[in-house]
Structure formats: structure tokens, C-alpha cells
Amino acid sequence: MTHSELIKQLFLSFHSKDDDAFMQAARAYIEREKRKKHTIVAKDLEKALYQTGSVSRGQKRFKSNPPIPRDTEKGFPLLEIQHFDVDFEALLLAERTKSQLERIMLEFKDADVLATYNLEPKKKILLCGKPGTGKTFSVQAISSILHIPVVYIRFDAIISSYLGETAGNLRKVFDFIENGTWIVLFDEFDIIGKNRDDHHEHGEIKRVVNNFLQMLDNIKGDSLLFAATNHQNILDTAIWRRFDAVIDYELPDEATRQTLFEHYLKPLKRDKNLNISQAAKQSNGLSPADIKMIAIEALKSAIIDHRDTLSADDLESAIVQFNRREQVKRGNV
Ligand SMILES: Nc1ncnc2c1ncn2[C@@H]1O[C@H](COP(=O)(O)OP(=O)(O)OP(=O)(O)O)[C@@H](O)[C@H]1O
Ligand SMILES: [Mg+2]
Asked: How far is the CA of 132 from the centre of ligand 1 (A)?
């Protein structure tokens, strides 16, 4: 086929949402470039084509998504589909945590190779650790790298509905997940553990939670599932053993805190007497989300003051304000 015929083929297959025809035309185009010894272009195109993990994992991207499942009673959506473009480099974690995440992605990408040895990639991952340490952010970064959207499970909508509906709601959610390749996020997962142990609750909730765990055990498909919690102590062993991997998030050390301050203060120039290493030293116990909040507050002080340089005072005031807020939170005021 000529150059223009191939391009036309690509357009037509896009229009008719025919994934197979699209892939065929795209591959033919790459082969054509290779024959013409345009090796760099061919490699680049190949990379772009196969980067979309979902295509190589057999998901039909062009078929429109099935409708979002909703609570029968109130019509609330039971999940949300979210798209992210987060830079993995912006995620600052302990080396051990980051390499665990990278390993999960490598196994996911190489699922076909593992299968030839009768092995499976890790698919159910529990993320635990203090608030604001990057659990949710990590899932967003992984979604960005793998080019697979996040299915964010709305536990509130599933569980708060009329109890008789809950089991049906869960089935709808799992049916949806099993019909595609997704990064699934069960955020604030402790709600499951909490309800399971709550003796004041009606026995039916316990039944629903057990039902959920069974569905989790038997889930089919290629999706990568993450559950995140900052109350891991609430989860009992029966829940823990459902997961192929557990990744714990630590508070950042001094060097990481310094990098976090630098990263989040980057939008403005900094005054010479603004001492970031001092701020990093004094912020022991703060999470990356706390540091981000302080940095944003400091930046805003300079901006609303129409200054293009951040002063030492901007940062100091933001830290004082943050500490005050923490004291209020702990009831020390
Ligand atoms: N490790 C990190 N590196 C860089 N930025 C981070 C990191 N952790 C958190 N942040 C920033 O803080 C924001 C909030 O973090 P995130 O929602 O991921 O925390 P979390 O661990 O899920 O907390 P929670 O347990 O309260 O849900 C992120 O969107 C990001 O901007
Ligand atoms: Mg979170």
C-alpha cells in the first residue's frame, strides 16, 4: 500500500472503531518505514504504538466503555473513571517503596512472558502508611505510565445505599472491572475492615463485606487492583492474605523533605536568605502532602503581594500557620 493509502486506512479504522484494522494499518506503516531504512522513525512509532499498554494486553480501546454502574435505588455512580498525567519522577519515595512500585509495573507489562512459565503478575496490591505520603498519588502515577485509566471505587455509594442493594451494587462493580483492563483503586479501604469488626452493626454488613472479599478472590481479567489505607491496623489477617503484595509508605527523611520543598517551591525564584535545608531539618514528621500545603501557602503570599521572589518570611509564616493548624487538630489549643 502507498503512504496515503495507509494513512487513509488508519483514519477509517479509527472512524469505525475497529481496533484490529487500526493495529494492522499501524504495523504496516511501521514496516514500510523500516523498509525505507527510517529506523529511528520506525522505532519511535513502535514505541508510541505499544506504549498504550491496554492495546498490547488485548483490550479494545476503541469500543466505547460500558455504562458506569449505578446504585439502583438512588442512581449514584458506583465508580468513576479517571485519567491522569502524573510524572513518576514527581513522586518522591523511599528507594525501597519506589522499586516495589516499579516491580509491579514490570510484572504487569510482562504478564504474557510470565504466563509462558505458568506464573502470574502481582495483581492485588495493598498500599498502607500515614496520610499524605503518596498512596493515592502513586496509583495516579502508575496509571499515567501504563496509559490505563483509574477506576475509582465509590465505597460510600456502594455501602451507604439501602443494604439489600449493596450485594447487587458490588456485583455490578466487579462485572464492570472484569470487562476491561483497568487500574482499580479501592481508596480508604479501611471502611471494609471497620464494618467487618463493628459489632454494633447489623449482621448484614458483615455478610456484604465477606461477599466483597469473595468477589475479590475470584476476580477475573487483567486489571491491576490497588487498595489504599492509612488505618492498616484495622484490617484483619483474612483481609491481608487477599493481597499479592503489601507496600508501606514512610514519612520522608530530611533529604527527601528538602527535595520536596525545592520541588513544590519551584514556581518562584527564591530569596538568598531563604534557607530550605533549615526548613527540611525543622519539618521532621511532616508528610509530603503537608510540605506541599506549606509550599503553596508560601507561594501564594508572595504572589498576592505582587512579588516574583519568595522571601524567607513567606516560608516561615506558612510553617507557623501549619504548626498552629496541627495544634488545633490535636486539640492542644
Ligand atoms: N511521596 C510524594 N512525593 C511527592 N508528592 C507527594 C507525595 N505524597 C504526597 N504528595 C502530594 O500530596 C498529595 C496528597 O497525597 P496522597 O493523596 O497521595 O496521599 P495518601 O497517602 O493517599 O493520603 P491518605 O492516606 O490521606 O489518603 C499528592 O497529590 C501529591 O501532590
Ligand atoms: Mg489517599
From this structure: 4
* Closest ligand relative to 128 C-alpha: 1
* CATH architecture of the region 79-249: 3-Layer(aba) Sandwich (3.40)
Q: Minimal CA–CA distance to 119: which of 108, 111, 127, 131?
A: 111
Residue 136 CB less than 6 A away from ligand 1? yes
Prediction pTM value: 0.79
What is the C-alpha separation between 49 and 14, in angstroms, rounded?
A: 14
The C-alpha angle 48, 52, 54, rounded to 5 degrees, equals 160
CATH class belonging to 254-329 = mainly alpha
Q: What are 105-161's pLDDT values in tens digits?
A: 999 999 999 999 999 999 999 999 999 999 999 999 999 999 999 999 988 888 765
Both ends of the chain: CA-CA distance in Å? 76
Residue with CA nearest ligand 1 atom 27: 131
Q: What is the CA radius of gyration of the chain?
A: 24
Atom 17 of ligand 1 has which residue's CA nearest to it?
A: 136
SS3 82: strand
Spans of all domains in the chain? 3-51, 79-249, 254-329
Pocket flag, ligand 1, residue 91 (CB < 6 Å): yes
